[in-house]
Amino acid sequence: MKKYIGTVITALICITLAVLGFVFNGFNLSSNQLDTLLILGIICGSSVLYCFIVGEISRNNSQMDKLWSLLPIAYAWVVTVKGDFHPRLVVMAVLITLWGIRLTFNFARKGAYSIKFWTGEEDYRWVVLRNNKMFKGHYVRWALFDLFFISLFQNALVLAMTLPMVAVMDSGVSFGVFDYIASSLVFILLLIELIADEQQWKFQQTKKKLLKEGKKLDELELPYKRGFNTVGLWSYSRHPNYCGEQGFWLALFLFTLGANVNTYFFFNWSMFGALFIVILFLGSSMFGEGISNSKYPEYKYYLCYVSKYIPFRKYNPEKAKAKYEKNHHE
Asked: What local confidence, expressed as pLDDT, does residue 120 receive?
């Protein structure tokens, strides 16, 4: 249970901060903001229906995965148009568009998109989860999970991620120093994601190529024989891509400070999207790590030694093994 304590505490902190955003600032919106939210809500609702219906018919539950990188771009430019192309909105929309292009490209090269839009490579985690004893053979149970988590929750979350743009659209405050700081931070975090994605792609492609040549995993040279990536950013963080992803949306929220949206410290109603992204990736990382830990013998040492997100120290196999054995003999 110890490994879940940090996750639970982080989730509770995020939920508390999100609630405080409403408690201290309320939800007072202009008619323009309400009209914009209505448009975004219609797009979001249509996406929920599409993801659920197509996902169930095709038995490919990566429909939302395909839209995850595209919907924020659409939301961002809808808000920008409704906000009369305020410089702050344009900058935020451009940054979100760059984020979306990166993620779409990364997903596309894995074979996720197809001319037959309902097909394509399905995320391996949905396959593993669908075959879990909780869902295997239980069609109704899986359909409900698909409806409420894969389709509804994730679509709502993607919409919530872009809510800081709605919050700043009618502020009337000019683009200033704080906005330049926020822009720089968002761009740096985007670069971290880009580098992490590229390093992971090269590692996995090389490993697959070597395995296709007929070699077994334990016959490969390091670092490929480990089965998991310990190169570059991945030697300092187990999920550098997740670190950049969560940081990107948290940093995007900082534009609300520059727009003077906040009335109590830094809390406001648009915060909860970024905070729930943190919660989502906590769960996603735990699930993915469980799969890797069951596949690769050395992964338990990596888990013990390298931090989940923020880099602290580089992976050292000998020291990691010693630390793992010490922890499990105490």
From this structure: 82
| Domain extent listing, the chain | 31-114+121-169, 178-265+284-330
Give the other-Cβ count within 10 Å of 280's Cβ: 17
**Is the model more confident about 58 or about 90?**
90
Backbone dihedral region for residue 134 (phi beyond 0: left; psi -120 to 50: alpha; all else: beta): alpha
Q: How far apart are CA 60 and CA 75, in angstroms?
A: 25
**Do 254 and 185 form a contact (C-beta atoms < 8 A)?**
yes
Nearest-10 Cα torsion for 113, 115, 117, 120? -40
pLDDT tens-digit map of 219-246: 999 999 999 999 999 999 999 999 999 9
Give me the residues paired with residue 264 across strands.
Answer: 267
Whether the Cβ atoms of residue 273 and residue 161 lie closer than 8 Å to each other: yes
CA dihedral sign, ordered 225, 227, 232, 238: negative
Tokens (6 digits) for 197: 């994605």
